[in-house]
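batch job 7 of whatever, protein = Zn(2)-C6 fungal-type domain-containing protein
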Amino acid sequence: MDKRVRTGCATCRKRRIKCDERKPSCARCEAANFVCEGYSAPRRVGSRSPTASSSTRSPNRTPPREETPFSGLSWRHTSWRQEQLPLYHHFVTTTALRFFRPDHVTFWRDQVAQLSVGFDLVYEALLAVGALHRASLLNCQNKDGQEAARSRVLGLHAYGNALRMLPTHLSQSAIKETIAIQAVLILLTFCECMMENPKGALRHLWAAIQLLRRSEESLSDVELSSMVPLYDAMLRLDFLAQKLVPYSSSSFMQCPDQAMMTSPFWNRISPVFSGMSQSDRIATERYRLIQLICGHNRLSRVVWGSWCPANQRPSREECLGFYSEIKLWKANSPATFASCDALDVLEASINIPLESRSIPPPVCEFPSNEAALTIAMHNAYLGCAVAMISATEEDPTPWDLEAFNLSYQTLCIAAGLIERKKYHFKSITPYKPCDAISVGISISIFQGACRCFSLAWRNWTVEALRAIGREGLSNGFTWANTIEIVGKLETGNVEHLSNAIIQSALGSLRYRVIPLLMPRGDDEHHVAFYFRERPEIEAVDDAVHISAKAMWTENFDGSINSLKLEVYDPVFSGFPITPEKPEALDLFSSWRQAVAHGWHGYLATDIQEELLRI
């Protein structure tokens, strides 16, 4: 006798698992991030009409089911080409696992991939991401360049198909199409990230955010819960945009309460994790850290404060508040800071005098890459707050020391990830920069470079960035070149320095040269501006003081080609001094105003092109 229960929801029956039969949607589906398709109508015994009794019962009759956000889509793709199947397989088996949170993989791998069977636009976007990621992975591992080029061509072809289809669907107002299109826009954002096109990536992301804001009021609670993976992907990409677009704040988090500002962060109850893996807990803690940083950056410009005019920087109280909340986040993040040998190495380094710390730094091996990247992010932004607090102190020495310690810890973390990248075939959890599209190590290394104790630390930072290479929009080669130019300015472009100079301290953080890298424009030129606080200029001045400007292109290996350097500050010897250009200051003021309410202001301005022409 067949003892299988036939009263479960349609989704659990398809998955062939036991349903708890909770209504209106079962808990098993919610826990696995599946859309519960509801329950079949119960069979009833009763008299049948003569017509019904005389008709033949269809053996394959499909029971009725409740409407789901993805049901009812009628667009069918025309064919499954043999060359496309490996790309589809790569997305569901590899890309989805590496681009998205572990607890959200089922949404992208199962629901979105299943949706692509009936929706051409989703299918082409999925193929594009899978193909471009496969090409990046082959290049990252130095495998089969011809196959990598073939995958990239197929990816660009699918991406073009998706772009051609997209406009006809953006005007749709039905919920089921809206959710599908938001998933497509996120996938297209990842495509542009892998093609290293910041403006294209942020256009797709901004379109997804606008579509979400327009439609979320009409979504039911079930539909909103099924969109949590979309919210998470948007938040991480929004955070990346804030780090790449100077002076910008979040375009995704419009309300301060979403950043935990309505009640103090430390008064909130710590989350309770039940039935979650360690990686899921780390991802959740990182999510809270990103929320905290985005909220403070929107309220007080803590991320870009060091590059702001003196009278527009966050106050000492605001910096101390940010500092305290990050410290409290660490105290409430047990999964990220779980006991391991790597943390022991970091703690032990604090007791070693700065000038005696080894370079290259000791390798820190964390149990997971997620923990290493989250701690590096914590160090970078805590160091940012420490540096601004240091600038307000009569005796900045204790704060400078804390900033140096955080910078050195990040170098140790980077050393461990580089080892995992170099010997990926031996590591259980290898680090592949091509997977670190939204959260990578290179930006954290670059942020710490401004707070290195000595030239030896900074030189190794440059080597580390070149070893990491490209992480989507975050290009380790470009970050390394930006820092190398700082060295040229400070040393007067002298190529060979004595070991004593290399090992000696670089001085207080307050008067360091800090670089500002602009997003890459439509051409291949990179532009960076270099700032230095000038004691001879009144602190109440509201202008941004630019010491130098560099413009260059890069060779295929990431090295600098055709560098053009303009120096405005006479403190830098060995360079001809160019008169400072007032129009550049006006453009910087216009840029800050354009992105004051979110990085999306960068998309609608030509200021970047004007800065290139100056």
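notes: The mean pLDDT is 79.
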